[in-house]
Amino acid sequence: MHLRFSPAEEAFRAEARAWLEANMPRTPRPTELGARAAYDQAWQRRMYDSGWAGIAWPRAHGGRGATLMEQLVWCEEYARAGAPDISTLFVGLNHAGPTLVACGSEEQKAAHLPPILRGEVIWCQGFSEPNAGSDLASLQTRAAVEGDFLVVSGQKVWTSFAHVAQFQELLVRTDPEAPRHRGITWVICPMDAPGIEIRPITTLTGESDFCEVFYDHVKIPLRNVVGQLNDGWRVAMATLSFERGTAFLAEQVRLSRRVDELVALARATPGPGGRRRAIDDDEIARRLARARAEVDALRAMTYRSVSLAARMGVPGAEASMIRLFFSELVQRIDLLAMDVQGAPAVETPASRWTELYLAGLSQTIGGGTKDIQRNIIGERVLGLPR
Amino acid sequence: MDLTLGPEETAVRDAIRNVLAERLPLARVRALASAEPGIDEALWREAGGLGWFGLGLPEAAGGGGYGAAEEMLLFVELGRALTPGPWLGTVLAVHALAGMPALAPVLAGTLCVALIDDPADTLGDGARLTGVARGVADAGAAEGFLVVGAGAVRYLPAATHGLAVEGRPSLDPTRRLGDVRFAGIAAAPLAADAAALRALATLLAAAEAVGVAERTLEDSVEYAGVRQQFGRPIGSFQAVKHRCADMAVRAEVARSLTTFAAVALAEGEGAAPRHVAAAKVLATDAALANAADNVQNHGGMGFAWEADAHLYLKRAWLLEHALGTRAAHLDTLAAPWRRGE
User: Fold this and answer.
1) Which chain B residue shows the shortest CA-CA distance from A263?
2) In CA terms, which of A56, A147, A352, B106 is 20 to 30 Å from A330?
3) Which domain holds residue B293?
4) Backbone angles phi, psi at B157, to 5 degrees
5) Is B2 in contact with A296 (Cβ distance < 8 A)?
6) CB pairs below 8 Å between A and B: how many?
């Protein structure tokens, strides 16, 4: 075991650090959604032009084809520089793109991968439905084959950025008679197709990035089906495992900085009862120290996970444990920030810390609730009976 | 960067695990607990012959030529097996006595050494040791004492004139404590670095806690898979399954951070002391919480003396009070922030 990176990896780190330093956007990310999307797209284009787009994508598909260790280094440097979250481009770059790489036809890859990498298109995800959340395989949005088309009717929900997206990775039920995992199809849905209606949902943070999407006899060409008809569950699962390998590398750096900032806040804020500074309160100091220890542990876990993946070739079962630990750690830190702030926590406009606390409540819901994560750990990691 | 076990590290780990499984099943641990001197002298000599005490010593000095990472693997296994005896003091004494004649019997496993951790120099920081060290683990069985003060490290044979030991049982039936009295004993400091030894000792205590956390997880998972109620294995119920999942996460957190800290220490990384302190906190968290959850998962049997679940919990509490409690380490981590660094 060793912690050192090779000379080649250190050279890569220096190159990444220098490029980020010179090229990172200096203006703050706008709040208005359209402007935010344009900002993300311009930044992605800049990375593309310098060969930094699609760091984990194969070279054959225009990516950088970086090794796992290089991906780790890039994620750390990206977060360390404070480079912006890819946000509106997340689904295209980290989900739909890798799915097409793994399961798409040559025609689909040629049509969609380059614009995703260049930041020219925004993708959204059409998985969850009002009655298919944790139990995703019970989805009911129906698609019938009519000639060369799928005709889709139904509803999706919790679709981030649907109102600015050009494409959607859409899961539909194409065979209602088949066992529920076998009658699902993964299809590329153009968001400008007639019959699609999008309604924004305001979340508890007050923002409206989420949408409901309604489909009324929407015609999608059959050539947009990725993989085979009725094989969509396998296609979707192929990507979910792709998502996990290095997903938390940047997060541990961001969380580490958040703890540093929280320490600074605790030194500048009165403690409980208005006496002394918050940092002089033993309970707050120890919770901060524990947060620091836990963020160090998150780094150690991600390093171990990447080491295992580098040795075995695939992400291991520990990824589900990292995910659960991360989501609850974020919430512990957010909660601590609420306590450190004192009364300003409840004033408006909400402080950045209060905004983080509210937004962080989704950490243990989105992409599989913490309860589902515990089932996965219990059954797939520990082998407990269903 | 690679934090997975390589072939040689795996071989070291497996060899230790196999010997302990064969020589020291829990029935043997219980038998040792009810007899004097409370340690397995034959196993001690065998471990010496196998080179366990000198794993981290250079080969030129008579050791195995490994480092803190392999020593960590040893202590995880010792924790898993609830091994009795002053392993920590003996391994540290090997480092402290390197190059001295007193090293040979310690390395060979014919002489075991208890650790007296005295970071505040309550026994004095001058030429003589005076006072009482309370609650020294395995003091009664030890044939030597390694006193690690704030800056100085001293070694005293148990037979030293003016040194008296009063042994007694502890909360953990498999470990005894003792009070060690020093009546103004002259003892010259060794060349060893107290801070480095204390960091290593803290790491190895954390590793032992990792072993407790992992072993209790495995026991719970096994029991939850076979124990039937309402016509189903209790592990199929989410209340039990989710508790086991939380145990798994804690064990993974503890194992990862302790491994990271061990490698950082072995490589002399500047932030290693911080990682060691953090590892001691989270590994002790994991050992205590997993051992308590393991009692719960075993239901009524978990509360019975004859079942093993309580032994792990009690060992975890001894580890909490070895080499700094969680609160003490958290205060150390927070100290620079409060001073204004």
Assistant:
1) B337
2) A56
3) 195-339
4) -65, 150
5) no
6) 161
Phi/psi of residue B145, each to 5°? -130, 135
**Which of A120-124, A241-245, B67-71, B254-258 shows the lowest per-residue confidence on average (mean pLDDT)?**
A241-245
Task: Produce one character per residue of A130-156: b if its CB has 16 or more CB atoms within 10 Å, e if not.
Answer: eebbeebeebebebeeeeebbbbbbbb
Give B253→chain A minimum CA distance, Å: 6
Q: Is A2 an interface residue toward B (CB < 8 Å)? A: yes
Closest CB from A292, A318, A325 relative to B333 = A292
Q: What is the ipTM of this complex?
A: 0.96
CATH code at position B255? 1.20.140.10
Residue B93: CA atoms inside 13 Å, Cβ hemisphere, count? 30
Does this model's pTM top 0.90? My answer is yes
Where helices occur in A232-345 by DSSP H, the ranges are: 232-244, 249-268, 282-312, 318-341
Partner-chain contact B260 A300, CB within 8 Å: yes
Does the structure show a pLDDT above 90 at A237? no
Whether residue A303 and residue B235 make contact (CB cut-off 8 A), yes or no, is no
Measured in whole angstroms, how far is the alpha carbon of residue A365 from the centre of its chain?
13
Name the residues of A annotated as catalytic: 243
**A269 at B interface, C-beta within 8 A:** no
Number of domains in chain B: 1
Q: Residue B181 forms beta bridges with which residues? A: B132, B164
Cis peptide bond N-terminal to A7, omega within 30: no
All structural domains of chain A = 7-85 (no CATH), 123-230 (2.40.110.10), 245-381 (1.20.140.10)
The chain B residue lying nearest A285, using CA atoms, is B334
Which A residues in the span 345-384 are in contact with B, Cβ-Cβ below 8 Å?
371, 373-375, 377-379, 381-384
First-to-last C-alpha distance (Å) of chain A: 36
Q: Are the Cβ atoms of B242 and A378 closer than 8 angstroms?
A: yes
Band of pLDDT at residue A192, cut at 50, 70 and 90: very high
Assigned domain for B116 exists = no
Helices and strands in chain B, H and E counts: 12, 8
φ and ψ of A36, to 5 deg? -65, -45
Tokens of B29: 């641990």
* Beta carbons within 8 Å of B240's beta carbon, 6+ residues apart: A384, B224, B234, B297
Residue B171 lies in a domain: no
Asked whether residue B89 carries a pLDDT value surpassing 90, the answer given is: yes
Distance from the Cα of A311 to chain B's closest Cα (Å) equals 8
CA distance A289 to chain B (A): 5
User: Does residue B61 come out as left (phi exceeding 0), alpha (psi in the -120 to 50 range) or beta?
Assistant: alpha
- In angstroms, what separates the C-alpha of A262 from chain B's closest C-alpha? 11
